[in-house]
Write a structure and sequence with these properties.
Blueprint lengths: L1 H11 L20 E4 L12 E9 L2 E8 L8 E8 L12 E5 L6 E4 L12 E5 L4 E7 L8 E8 L10 E7 L9 E8 L7 H9 L12 H11 L3 E3 L5 H9 L3 H9 L3 E2 L2 E3 L4 H14 L7 E4 L10 E4 L8 E3 L2 E5 L8 E2 L2 E2 L1 H12 L7 E6 L8 H12 L4 E3 L2 H6 L18 H7 L5 H14 L7 H6 L3 H14 L4 E6 L8 E5 L3 E6 L4 E9 L2 E6 L43 E4 L3 E5 L5 E8 L2 E8 L2 E8 L3 H5 L5 E6 L2 E6 L4 E6 L2 E6 L28 E8 L2 E7 L1
Length: 711
Amino acid sequence: MRCLFLLLSVFCLPLTASCGPVSHDREWSYADLRLLDPVDDTFSPSTDILAVYTRTSGSDFEIRIDLLDISLTPDYNMLVYLDPSPWGTDPVDWQVEISIPFDGPVKVFTNNPTLDAHNIIPRLVRDPWLDTVVVRLNSHFLPRDFKVHVFSIRFLPNQINPPNDMVVNISTGGVPPIQRAPVLLAFWDTFPAATPAQALRRWDGAHTGPRGERHGLKHILDNAGLYGIPVALLDLKTPPSLAALDTLGITPQIQSLASQGLLILPDVAYGEPANTSLAFSRRAAAGFNLHASPFVYSTSSNLQSKYLAQFLPLESISHLARSGGTRLIPIPAADAIQATPDGPSLDVRRALVAAAFSGDLSDLMVLGGDLPHSTWGNANMAGPTFAWIAAHPWIQPLTGEHLLAFPVEAHYVHLPTAPSATTPILSALNVAPDNSVTDSAWQVYFMLTAPTSDEMLPLLRANYLGQVNELLVAARWAERPSSLLDCAHDLNNDSQPECVLSNRDFFAILDPAGARLTNLFYLDKAGPHQVVGPSSQFTVGLSDPSEWHTELGQAADPSVIPAAFSDEPDTWMRFTTGITPEGITFTSPDGSRIKTYRLLYDGIEITYHGSGPVSTRIPLAVDPQAFFFGPTDYQSAISPGAWAWGLVNGLQVNVRTTAVFSAQSLTDSVPYLSQPEDPDRLYPGGHYMPFPLSVVDLQCTGDFSVQIRVK
């Protein structure tokens, strides 16, 4: 009887009103929420009522109705009744009806002769982006206390349409529902970047998202700050990611969001053994002024028991669990479509409402995923989705503090602990001296053994593990420097001997395959400093996978700069060696090219003898540990016959040569890193070089010399 009376009033009552925009004195809050309604099995999301809010704002009374999804062109009618009758009265003694048609102005009717409908001037805003309808009324002409009834009706022409959804007896003086929908946003693979080009693409890349759109971490951070929604970036606190973000100038934004509690930044066990990679994660975070965390994320999912909480894949992604004294926080599925240009997908919205109605206080919803493959990073999807969540106060985004206090499901999960180190390389790393060269060796090892879904990449990386041993040889020299001229030992496990040229200040490793200078180090009172190193020390796999040849050893990846003085096209030609009191000489098989290396008091000199053209390169890797563990400022300078490269307040390297040369570095790319990626821009060569290399290219015909000097 009650519903029939309300329904018939749509067709039999004269309706008059005006329509206009609603201005809000404040955002809608959880305290304004009066009712949350379950998702209905309806064919029309635009008539599915989710929530009703009421509040007084100045002299106005406001009613807000959340719907599951509103189309840009309204396809529904809505009736709102203000009813001062006691609970359960039948028939309804309503006094004000507000009719919101799919088309045309809002109208008001009253059946109380003491009320004048013309004084109750409704102002209406439909927001199809936030899926809300707000009605604002002059409260002076309304009953003092009343209930609200809301009916939504799918508009179908030329027929009487029954209500699709209804909520009744909503008290304007009621309290909000007890439970909200707790939601966690968590992402991994958040900023994989080994070059300025990759950093810009992962930050604000053009055509990089899963649907070929502009995409990147920028859109997560900007919207988290704009809408005050906390986000967990599970693996951001690694040395390469933090250093690349600092080069882009993003560190202050990350620090600010973290200080506001809007970023959850776990310590990261990004390699095994976890205790070493965790130490590097914490060290890099401290260097970039980010705090250590009570949370941890492990790419191997091994238990890290020294932390209060650990993020990892769990069988149930709707509950926290426990292993020993560590609470376990689930991470979301990797490939679900959650963010759309219209806000959260309908599946996400339905799941959020279901979470709010769950009687289990330990129930939560986890959103996010693998960021490069997630629509959350889409420039056109992140904003609407963050805005929708922020605008619906029945959703409770969880902060780090919330997660540490959130109820944990009763059952326990058994997790394995980290495996013990057994390989020869790991054994050597574990007993290596504590200095920056050993740190570089560890980072190379972690880079080359990082988990990946690419089946071919581990095979490619395996070809470059031998360089870890070269770095460890240099690390041991740095602890006990000595002079050595030797070509008798296999330093990188390639079954061929390499040469060492050293004194108490400099340590050089030379490879007869190409007569290349693979590494050069300088030792002073501050400790060892790297000067030259291959690009494979920082990344491999930059070339097209179709060009990989995993059977070719160190030549497997054509994008790698394998060493200094790696001549093209004779990069891997094996030279014969000769040791003299002054240095080491390498002679090509036909005797047409001779390279001689000798140490200077402040560096090393290389001379070429021959009549043919030479094209070669020098990758300068100046103090990479400074780059990876704190803010750095590299600078370059070019002058006739010389290239200077190094840290503004640190080691400077000067390359002098009689050959024709050019040079590239990350500083060439810096002016472009504050702008969105432009696929039509011709970026400088340094844009594609691994951090923090500078590469000198040399061309000459006949004899020439090169000096690499430090100051």
